[in-house]
Amino acid sequence: MRIVSIVGARPQFVKAAPVSRALRARHEEILVHSGQHYDQEMSGVFFDELQIPRPDYNLAVGSGSHGRQTGEMLGLIEDLLLELKPDAVLVYGDTNTTLAGGLAAAKLGIPVIHVEAGLRSFNRAMPEEINRVLVDHLADLLLCPTPAAVDHLAAEGITRGVELVGDVMLDATRWISERIDARPTLERLGLRTGEYFLATVHRAATSDSPRQLEAVIRAFSRVDKPVVWALHPRTDKNIDTHGLRALLEAADNIIAVPPLSYTETAGLLKNAAGLLTDSGGMQKEAYFYGVSCVTLREETEWVETVELGWNRLVGTDEDSIVEAARDLVRPAVHPDVYGDGHAADAIVHMIERRYAD
Ligand code: UD1
């Protein structure tokens, strides 16, 4: 089969790594990078570390408003699909790249395969929620990481082409776990295992709001351990735009660093006392490493982590963040709710089953 896989943003590179490896063992894969993320530290380093093949095409769309960015990708992807004539198009997750890829393919009558289908936050103010709902309704093969995702699709009337395959991020975590040496990063940042928090903040809802971003900085500064904060470019810019740089720099315990590579992030996460984040995927990565998580959001797509006690949703209230970090719990139970770490093989198997002819 000829499959065109479309990626564009940081978490999609992580998900594509295991799937690409499994797919290329038996099929032709053409990898398209939309260019949504373009900095070396947001993109190139992931391809290097995860040993992802170089993209065959880079559409270099760059940053922009949602409509402009998505629209530009849509046209470029359509042109490419007309030329490449794939048997199916594979998209990941919930970014603007996912929507553009899914929509371009569906309009051309090319089957859309959606990896990480069925996730819902039930918060339509999130651009990602709009993207994932739309792509699920366009998709022909919906590959779900959890039974809850299968249930969400059923509740929206989608039952055909739905398969439970487990979570590909677990495949990626297993792969990188064997290759991590966190010592150089811990030494460089002056950290000791289990005695610091790792933090990431990038959601528009958190970082575009001066009030919320200030509350987050104030909360991190009151946490009783060092907080390594890997600053996403959006957040870094907003710290200046909102006039919060001095507040950040005054906090002795916050170690603000540029975006970290996948290996560095994995090493720091694995050895952290806890994770403070508004990311989706990292809540789950914390769970994979047996690290407790405090989520700076009101809702999550990864409800299992909360139900099992490994994750607390605290929003962006300053005191709630500080209290959750102080009262961190480490539950005794840690079941394999995200599959067995072989989701990529299951994905290829499901693709072959659906499109055998
Ligand atoms: C996007 C995804 C989000 C995902 C995240 C992972 C959407 C709607 N959102 O959010 O679901 O969790 O990626 O990181 O698709 N920028 C740079 N360099 C880069 C990329 C971005 O400086 O290489 C800056 C630009 O100022 C840009 C801003 O970051 O405007 C936001 O980038 P964008 O791709 O629009 O969204 P993310 O916040 O990264």
Kindly describe this structure.
The chain has 357 residues and is α/β, with parallel strands linked by helices. The protein is built from 17 helices and 13 strands. The protein has helices at 10-24, 40-49, 66-84, 96-107, 127-138, 147-155, 168-177, 183-189, 204-207, 210-222, 233-241, 245-250, 262-270, 281-288, 303-307, 318-326, 343-354; strands at 2-7, 28-33, 57-58, 88-92, 112-115, 141-144, 162-164, 197-201, 227-231, 254-257, 274-277, 293-295, 311-313. Strands 3-2-1-4-5-6-7 form a seven-stranded parallel sheet, sandwiched between helices. Helix 3 packs across helix 4 (96-107) and helix 4 (96-107) packs parallel to helix 5 (127-138). The mean pLDDT is 97. Uridine-diphosphate-N-acetylglucosamine binds at residues 9-11, 36-39, 42, 63, 94-96, 127-128, 202, 233-234, 237.
